[in-house]
Amino acid sequence: MAQPLLEISGLRTGFETHDGTVPAVDGVDLTVHAGKTLCVVGESGCGKSVTARSILRLVEEPGRIEAGTVTWHGDDEPFDVLSLDHDDERLQKLRGGDIGMIFQEPAASLLPLRSIGAQLIETIRNHTDLDKKAARERAIDLLQLVGIPKPHERVDAYPFQLSGGMCQRAMIAIALCADPSLLIADEPTTALDVTTQARILDLMRNLQERHHMAVMFITHDLGVVAELADEVAVMYLGRVVERAGVEELFADPKHPYTRALLESVPVLGRDRGRDLPTVPGTVPNPLHRPKGCSFHPRCRDAIAGRCDIDEPPEVVFDDGRTAECVLYDDREGAQA
Ligand code: SF4
Q1: pTM assigned to the model
Q2: Is 234 in the pocket of ligand 1 (CB under 6 A)?
Q3: Residue 215's pLDDT is what?
Q4: Are 214 and 5 in contact (CB under 8 A)?
Q5: Considering only CA atoms, which residue is closest to atom 5 of ligand 1?
Q6: d(CA 235, CA 42)
Q7: Who contacts 249 (Cβ-Cβ below 8 Å, separation ≥6)?
Q8: What is the 325 CA–ligand 1 centroid distance (Å)?
Q9: In the prediction, which pLDDT does 212 show?
Q10: Whole-angstrom Cα distance, residue 201 to residue 217?
Q11: Which of these, 126, 185, 242, 294, could form a disulfide with 102 (CB 3.0-4.6 Å)?
């Protein structure tokens, strides 16, 4: 088993509103292993992106990280990212250095008034000792690495002069500037057409193999998960409700929410002439979480008098996978 690189434990992040604190992330435990890909999946609003932003403490007001630890194992002594002062060198080294991050909307994340090259060079110089000339050469190399044609010319282009796919490649280049040990990719292909999406996924897979990076890939696309993941965490309403290896999860999903998500994926040929199953209902307002299991109003297997009253325990199976569900509470070999 690969070594843990990043361990999140009991993470809680909330947003202050006039009606109270919205618990966007409500006690998340996750581990990313060195050189492996962890895919975090779930419907919109389940807390995936806030979890990713909490790792690097990029949650903006009125958001606030309220509890938990984020332990970075890196090369030196492990430390809790959440306990560092804002001006701690280790935090600066993590952001864009040991941990690269790709955001969902490249057009919104790149600075519109600075060339791609200027943005790359600044990040390279923040994390290396390279002078301006050497940093520019490195920037051109990185643009070439991510498959941008004519990188000597494109390095001076502004974001509005590039297509969406090119901008996303430029974002990946910026995230790779300092050879990160972990790349966090927050729905990096959502805004792209399927052809560009396939190219970007190929690129990420190749880069990961070449650089032995760990990747935390946030997506709602189970097809992408099947292609990329080693491990999968399924989130619902701010909690991780199931964790498993990708093969185990697809072959034998344990949590009713995971099963419903998988059933809602169309399969060529199988679904001809019948309605595609959907997860019934909608994600509840996190301000008014249902009592007991928060999935119970939408769950086909809910047990009246139990699921609507008690919070389900996290059940750990013999192979290490987990599910938060009462259905496995008494399973032989599982520990609640
Ligand atoms: Fe469904 Fe109950 Fe399991 Fe929740 S605890 S997923 S309601 S069976």
Answers
A1: 0.90
A2: no
A3: 95
A4: yes
A5: 325
A6: 5
A7: 232, 234, 242, 258, 321
A8: 5
A9: 85
A10: 11
A11: 185
- pLDDT tens digits, one per residue of 293-303: 999 999 999 99
pLDDT band at 331 (very low <50, low <70, confident <90, very high): low
Q: Does pLDDT of 336 surpass 50?
A: no
Cα–Cα distance list, 53 to 4, 32, 58, 90, 180 (Å): 19, 15, 5, 17, 16
> 323 CB under 6 A from ligand 1?
no
For the residues of 95-129, what is the DSSP string, one character each?
A: BTTTEEEE-S-HHHHS-TTS-HHHHHHHHHHHHS-
- Backbone φ and ψ of 56, nearest 5°: -100, 10
Is there a contact between 24 and 13 (Cβ–Cβ < 8 Å)? Answer: yes
- pLDDT at position 220 is 87
304-326 tens-digit pLDDT: 999 999 999 999 998 899 999 99
Query: What's the per-residue H, E or C state across 7-22?
Result: EEEEEEEEEEECCEEE
| Closest C-alpha among 48, 51, 44, 60 to residue 11 | 51
Burial class, 64, CB count within 10 angstroms (exposed 0-12 / middle 13-18 / buried 19+): middle
Cis omega (within 30 of 0) on the bond before 62? yes
Q: Which residue's CA is the closest to the ligand 1 atom numbered 8? A: 302
Q: What is the dihedral of CA 139, 141, 146, 151, to 10 degrees?
A: 80
Instruction: Please tell me the distance from the alpha carbon of residue 102 to that of residue 44, in angstroms, as a whole number.
Output: 18
Q: Given this model, what pLDDT does residue 240 score?
A: 97
If you measure from the C-alpha of residue 311 to the centroid of ligand 1, how many angstroms do you get, rounded to a whole number?
Answer: 9
Taking alpha carbons only, the member of 257, 252, 243, 244 closest to residue 307 is 257
Closest CA to 279 of 224, 232, 231, 234: 234
pLDDT for residue 2 is more than 90: no
Other beta carbons within 10 angstroms of residue 193's beta carbon come to 12
For 246, the token pair is 């990708």
Domains and their CATH numbers in the chain:
1-98+180-287 (3.40.50.300), 109-177 (no CATH)
Identify the residue whose C-alpha is closest to ligand 1 atom 3.
325
